[in-house]
Amino acid sequence: MTARTAVPTRNSGPSRVAKALASRPGSLVTVAALLMVAATLVPLGYIVFTLVATGWHETAELVFRPRVAELLRNTAELVVLTVPICVALGVGLAWIVERTDVPGSAWWGPAFAAPLAVPAFVNSYGWVSAIPSLHGLWAGVLVSTVSYFPLVYLPAAATLRRLDPAVEESARALGSGPIAVLTRVVLPQLRLATLGGGLLISLHLLAEYGAFAMIRFDTFTTAIFQQYQSSFAGAAGSTLSGVLVLLCLVLLAAEAGVRGRARYARIGGGAQRGVHRIRLGLGTIPMLVVLLGALAGTLGVPLWTIGRWLKIGGAGVWHSTEIGESLGQTVGLAATAAAITVVCAFPVAWVAVRSTSRFARVIEGANYITSSLPGIVIALALVTVSIRWLPAFYQTAATILAAYTLMFLPRALVSVRAGLAQVPVGLEEASQALGKSPAATFFRVTLRLTAPAAAAAAAMVFVAVATELTATLLLAPTGTNTLAMQFWQLSGELDYAAAAPYALIMIIASVPVTYLLFTQSRKAAGL
Amino acid sequence: MTAARWKLVSGALAAIAVLGATTACSGSSDGDNEIVVYNAQHESLTKEWIDAFTKDTGIKVTIRNGGDTDLGNQIVAEGKNAKADVFITENSPAMALVENAGLFADVDKDTLAQVPEQFRPSTGKWTGIAARSTVFVYNTAKLPADQLPKSLLDLAQPQWKGRWSGAASGADFQAIVAALLAQKGEDATLSWLKGMKENAVISQNNTTVMKGVNSGQFDGGVIYHYYWFKDQAKTKENSKNTQLFYFKNQDPGAFVSISGGGVLKSSKHQNDAQKFLNYITSKQGQAVLRDGDSMEYPVASDVAANPALPPLASLDAPKIDPSKLDSKKVTQLMTQAGLL
User: Fold this and answer.
1) Residues in chain A within 8 Å Cβ distance of B203
2) B162 and A CB contact within 8 Å
3) Longest dimension (CA), chain B
4) Is the ipTM of this complex over 0.85?
5) Taking CA atoms, what residue in A is nearest to B217?
6) Which region is the signal sequence (chain B) (predicted)?
7) If 0-12 CB within 10 Å is exposed, 13-18 middle and 19+ buried, where does residue B155 land?
8) A329 touches chain B (CB under 8 A)
9) What is the pTM of this model?
């Protein structure tokens, strides 16, 4: 999530030759990275393969029909409405918290990051219990906004905190009023943060399944799931997946186009002063009302709902054996996936950081594409690939772990790459000069220095897996019952009370990583 | 050099993979005295069966839950390497799908003898294990009894626009469409589905349909009978403002769907799997349907239905051979009508 704001720093060693020798990725690392990238392209390859196998005529028939137009309209309306609302809300709240003297500014930051700990389908459950008739486009916009606005809030708040006040002062000295300063100086500098956040939100919107299924709103992802339920892995599902992938690519391209080569950095010597906070005076009360209202809508509703259902359900809903089993399986899968994903991220990060070649750029690019693929497409691909060509892997833990790795590698990569970029190559050179083998150097120097970043990466993957629903539903080995699966099954039968403990545990499990993201967003903006 | 490093990394990877496989794979069963059931029936009902069966026989059962159609299609895709020993559904079209792919073993004669002929296919490749009736649930405040549809087919008429709901993506609804297809043919079914696309509000599942009808979001909805009876037996929270209407007259809307069970030919645990099917259709297994809270109709071993239900024979359902229900065609037609 911090990829957009983090600027990787290249190491500049004293001796270029020594640096080239020490930092050139070994051929085996390169091969490993290449294999990872190839694996990430399997889902895309599968989609292309099925479309070709289905044949032009049938594909066209499946693509050019009113249902697809309807899904396209729904999905487009959702993105077009939700992203600006999230940007307005995220930037607005960040501005109030960071730029005014509103009381408790130290507490608002973590409070507005906290909604990220609530999975979107739990948010949906919260809202649909509060307003049972909730459905359709606006319900989708509502649920997505409360689930995803922190993705804009976090970078916006971090950037606002870091902006050099000198620019704003100059504008004011040149006669600009406060509004002109805001719109012409401050907001443009938030462009990178909001664009990055907006792109992330759009990709989440395309991939979301549980939240929308619960409120009767059809997007490509929910429709692919319905097709899967009706015909397992049929041509219609694959065709819809193909269109969904195209949508993701369009979004990526659009964001890249709008972003351009914009970079905002302070140049010149000296350190910047702290920002000047606007005195609200009488305006304090309304601002507090806005902040509290936003908090009530985002965090308050799901927590209140869960609390209410827990109260109604009483002790009877805490089926300790089943919850314990689910928790055990969830932790087992999430921990294993986190470990594998971080290990796989290392060679790719190594190549990305230590090499300036075109190959490195290709690897990074391939990763972006995979990161934009919704879980359902990856899952559908792995179901078909394993059942047709790798029956030994079909319905095994290996397949679901592979899916998690493919889906969450980019998240791990962002962190590992940042950590690796900060390891001084000089230390590795010194270690080797002192006679340690490259392997020993890697484990004693590089790995030790990147351990915090790797831990952060692992934590992020852990939570993502613990709350993952779509791919898990399709791929999990027989007998698996993760927290998310149990929650989904129980809430699907409208047994909201029995689902509540699972929702609560999922939220609690996500809190540490939400805190991590919060602190990371501040660091990243400071780079 | 790098080789050593890579060895370490790959070693660690392999270790983790093995660890992961052993922790997460504990659910799959290759052991003896253990069968895998692909279960599309309500999980709570199947669990009741399984618990009693395991207690009696010591045979362990692992279940994989899913919908009728996806599990059926999944078994067909798995083919000879099917992971399931037994397949249990809510409806018969998915059973017919697997039967037509030639993947079912013959059901034991003893088991067949427990099930009357009208509740199983003549081929004996699978058997009925329970039954459920299509009903129209309606909000009594919004829809006076004299404005009820005479036939399921009426719901495609313009006056029903926006007033009724169905869970189109669920296997239950697709079974009803399969019956319509068997009774009225492809053209009539497609045009009815197009009418449904125009008129109906699509819900996630039968419970949401009923809940929506109860709260007055829609006037009525097409569901199976037991959702209503289950809620009535408990809190009535989702059905207190509603009544059921039975179409009868052998209308497509009076369709009684047979829940099926079958043993996979590829199963390595034929005996245990057949025993399980035999248990479900035995007096003891069928009594679970009468005494438990599933509210589905027992079909075998002369076990009577829950007394709260109208007798199955009184529903005047259309007579359709359960082996003739075509889920593949249904999915195609529903895709064509824009419902999927």
Assistant:
1) 216
2) no
3) 86
4) no
5) A133
6) 1-26
7) buried
8) yes
9) 0.86
